[in-house]
């Protein structure tokens, strides 16, 4: 714009001088030449969170919380704020959740329940995260003590827990995540766990409205909602509602077929605790954008994350947002 104004002024002045009889070409001032506009560099997009693919300004510590997942403990609080939600089989053929928080924290979370041996095999990929739980079997205590985690259970961090009114024990124990992390300030910050994200779904998906996953004593249905752009969760024939309002669900659901066998642990009724093998390789299905994709998964070691690849060997990108990883077996062990 400055160059154009200079041209206009110079031309006007030249015209006046040209009208004078005594003027010569040598007396004319030089005409300014327009300059090429320089393109401003594109702003650098903010980095993506490794758990959700959404933009973040900074990475925060990782908090894992064990959450009740039967009708007695519902509606659950805080699950909708999790970055990742793992579904694991426990005793009696039932399931329990392990919610992973980092990009944001809910005000409250729960009901908080006890940990299982499978948790200790999933958590090392997060470095040394904080683990909130409400006790373990006596035989398992040494395993927790040796695990790479910060123990923020109700016994080690009682001030972060409270009993919710209107619920009965043991389904009334809730925690305040900010207080939990205040006791684990050195917990590892979020880092790569193998997830890849994209705005648009890749080619090769099969349109799917509903997908069902069965455990020995629990049934899940994930139904695509075009309006919400999420897979909504129904468990045992009932909509899985959140205490904050709305139905539980996520833009990406990973049904990961794993080997499950009896561990050396069992509950007071004699029912064996399942050991879910999240290390190794196998097959699965990824649900996103109303489509299902067959994938292969691989996790070479406990310290590493899990990669998911499509038939051509390329990474399977997830939709941005919360991810549910449903660890299920085609042939689950009997309770």
UniProtKB/TrEMBL annotation:
Q: Where is the composition biased (Low complexity)?
A: 29-41
Official protein name in the record: DUF3048 domain-containing protein
UniProt source species: Microtetraspora fusca
Taking every annotated instance into account, which residue ranges of this chain make up the domain DUF3048? 52-187, 211-325
Identify the keywords attached in UniProt to this record, alphabetized.
Signal
InterPro entries linked to this entry: DUF3048_C, DUF3048_N, YerB-like_sf
Give the start-end ranges of region Disordered. 22-60
Q: Record's Pfam families?
A: DUF3048, DUF3048_C
Q: Which residues form the signal peptide?
A: 1-20
């Amino acid at each position: 714009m400055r160059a154009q104004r200079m041209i206009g002024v110079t031309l006007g002045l030249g015209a006046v001088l040209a009208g004078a009889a005594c003027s010569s070409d040598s007396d004319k001032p030089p005409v300014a030449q327009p300059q090429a506009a320089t393109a401003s560099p594109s702003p650098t997009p903010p980095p993506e969170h490794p758990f959700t693919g959404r933009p973040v300004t900074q990475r925060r510590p990782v908090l894992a919380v064990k959450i009740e997942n039967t009708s007695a403990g519902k509606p659950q609080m805080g699950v909708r704020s999790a970055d990742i939600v793992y579904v694991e089989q426990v005793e009696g053929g039932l399931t329990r959740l392990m919610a992973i928080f980092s990009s944001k924290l809910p005000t409250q979370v729960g009901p908080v329940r006890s940990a299982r041996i499978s948790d200790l095999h999933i958590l090392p990929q997060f470095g040394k995260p904080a683990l909130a739980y409400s006790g373990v079997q006596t035989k398992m205590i040494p395993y927790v003590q040796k695990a790479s985690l910060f123990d923020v259970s109700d016994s080690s961090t009682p001030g972060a827990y409270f009993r919710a009114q209107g619920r009965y024990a043991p389904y009334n124990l809730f925690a305040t995540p900010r207080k939990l992390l205040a006791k684990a300030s050195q917990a590892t910050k979020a880092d790569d766990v193998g997830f890849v994200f994209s705005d648009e779904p890749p080619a090769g998906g099969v349109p799917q409205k509903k997908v069902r996953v069965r455990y020995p004593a629990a049934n899940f249905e994930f139904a695509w909602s075009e309006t919400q752009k999420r897979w909504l969760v129904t468990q045992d024939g009932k909509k899985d509602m959140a205490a904050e309002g709305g139905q539980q669900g996520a833009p990406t659901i990973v049904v990961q077929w794993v080997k499950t066998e009896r561990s050396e642990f069992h509950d007071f009724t004699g029912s064996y605790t399942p050991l879910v093998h999240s290390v190794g390789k196998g097959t699965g299905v990824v649900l996103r954008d109303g489509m299902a994709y067959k994938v292969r998964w691989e996790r070479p070691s406990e310290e590493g994350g899990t990669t998911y690849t499509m038939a051509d060997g390329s990474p399977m990108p997830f939709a941005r947002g919360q991810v549910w990883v449903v660890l299920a077996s085609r042939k689950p062990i009997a309770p």
